[in-house]
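WARN no homologs supplied; continuing
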Amino acid sequence: MNTEKVTARRLTSDEVAELGLQEEIFVSAELDDLSLDCFAPAFLTKPGKYFDGGSFIARTIFGKEIHVLPDNAEERGVWVADEAGEEIEVLQSAGVLLNLALFVPNGNKESLESLYTAAREAFGAGIVQRWNEEVVAVPDVKVDLFEEPARGRKNTSGQNRDRRALDIYPTRVRFMEPSTGWKFIVEPHHEPIDDTPTI
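OK structure emitted
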């Protein structure tokens, strides 16, 4: 486990109530109901002044939401970096978890094992792990995936409307989310045709 020692002090409920969303704090490190004997960097999910009853919710950099009662002596509390404080152990972010969707033409068990082996050789056998494997047969087709404003302009032709091209493989669509204020448009793929006259 990769930790570092940080000098910090424990905050009271009144002090936490003055915190904003951008201020880094440290709360108890919990990963999948496993309570670790250290802290994790975190941020409040909303400004401290908007919480009621002295109970605060913080989200750690690992995506875990923690409910905290800072004044409860039986809990680990909320801490903030302070050179005049005491040393605490803080869990470091040691890597990045990638959720990959791989399309393998004519994929079979041997080709998937080859991909897995190549990844382990590139990054290390102890690094690359398969946590969840979903093998789905998908058609080898292409579509044009665009984004358009959720509220399009009226009386505009299809040629002039605001849109931006994103992708041509439908299997990746379910792993994507449209940008704020935009929606997905999926159309059959058309290879671009160059109409430039040639001599």
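The helical segments are 13-16, 109-123.
OK
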